[in-house]
Amino acid sequence: MSKVLVVTSGKGGVGKTTTTAALGAAIAQSGSSVCVVDFDVGLRNLDLVMGAERRVVYDLINVVNGDAKLAQALIRDKRLDKLALLPASQTRDKDALTDAGVARVMEELREKFDWVICDSPAGIERGATLAMRHADMAVVVTNPEVSSVRDSDRIIGLLDSKTIKAEKGETLEKHLILTRYDPNRADRGDMLKVEDVLEILSIPLLAIIPESEEVLRASNVGCPVTLNNPLSAPARAYADAVRRLQGEAVPMSVPSDRKSFLGKFFTRRAA
Amino acid sequence: MSLLNIFSRRGSAPVARERLQLIIAHERADHGRSDLVVILREEILAVIAKHVAIEPDKVQIKVERGEGVSTLGLDIELPLPAAARLTAARTETAAKAKQAVAA
User: Fold this and answer.
1) A142 in helix, strand or coil?
2) DSSP for A127-152?
3) Measured between CA atoms, how close is B15 to chain A, in angstroms?
4) How many C-beta neighbours within 10 Å does residue A76 have?
5) Considering its fold, how many domains does chain B have in total?
6) Domain residue limits at B92
7) Domain positions in chain A
8) What distance in Å separates the CA atoms of residue A219 and residue A21, rounded to the nearest whole number?
9) In terms of Cα–Cα distance, which of A131, A7, A161, A138 is closest to A64?
10) At residue A5, what are phi and psi to the nearest 5 degrees?
11) What ipTM goes with this model?
């Protein structure tokens, strides 16, 4: 049984694409086949974060329109053979995606892969609703920050009304990934705590990704953070998230990057 | 920051939390409103707009569910000229009715 998962958030810049790449790579490492699909037509970035930007020939819209076969558009990851990318189109606009075309492509992806992860564009417009439409489950990416939490609440409302599962009266599994979390600032009372966000959004927590330099470092070199430095705090948090998605009970924690005494000293000073 | 501030500081997160809880409760009520109320609102507005110029944001429609009965409440703020015309029409009808009784 293949699973379609949408990574969504409402607000932009909270870590949807980072999360899609990291989850995709971690699932592939665990041995399941996975395709990550970029739905951000016109503003594609998943290819860049995955380091495949120079290998894009055909894209989602070409496949939706029947100009290319799915197999022609899929880009196999060079590091993990179980991982594939279906890029978005950079030049066309999102109206080029037809409902029927997307439905057909999603069906084909389900046949080929164990997991299909749809990277949603920001916003609540057509691109975002199309990305979530065929999902079996959703990962809502949220920063511990007021605008992000508010937008996530809107997106949760859409997940409960605009998806095929919701229209059929079934429940769509929703999970929260809290990104850019800083336990020290939360302890000092200057950042919303995990419990605050959970109480407001009331969906189960899948992972807490700590604020970390490793995320930028990974995207700089075009490598999912789970592959670039598997021992780093965000990589461990994403790896735990994948184990939870696969049904394992993993205790929740906020991993931290190990720092030398001097390193700690300087970070404190900077903060 | 003064020394007093350092000790009495409770941080900005509780403020964020309270603001979020308020705005989200408000927005959920808006978006979760049943379709029937939306339809009623549109149709009632259309009927009134045929006769009186009204501003859509000066109209409040709410449904209150009680145990025995539910009520549909309409609160429409009329612009001054329209209100004057309505009152005039009412006095006229009342006058006519009086005449009819007298006759």
Assistant:
1) strand
2) HHHHHHHT-SEEEEEE-SSHHHHHHH
3) 9
4) 13
5) 1
6) 3-102
7) 3-270
8) 10
9) A131
10) -120, 130
11) 0.80
Residues of A in contact with B17 (CB under 8 A): 192, 196, 200
Query: Considering the domain A3-270 in this protein, what is its CATH number?
Result: 3.40.50.300
CA distance B90 to B20: 47
Q: The tokens of B74 are what?
A: 């309409």
CB contact under 8 A, B23 and A150: yes
Match 């184990």 to its residue by tokens. Answer: A243
One-letter identity of residue A231: L
Map tokens 């995709």 to a residue.
A24
Q: From first to last of its 271 residues, what are the pLDDT tens digits of chain A?
A: 799 999 999 999 999 999 999 999 999 999 999 999 999 998 999 999 999 999 999 999 999 999 999 999 999 999 999 999 999 998 777 678 899 999 999 999 999 999 999 999 999 999 999 999 999 999 999 999 999 999 999 999 999 999 999 999 998 999 999 999 999 999 999 999 999 999 999 999 999 999 999 999 999 999 999 999 999 999 999 999 999 999 999 999 998 876 655 555 555 544 4
**Tokens of residue A243, six digits:** 């184990």
CB atoms within 10 A of CB A48: 17
AA identity, residue A255 = P
- Residue numbers in A near B9 (CB within 8 A): 189
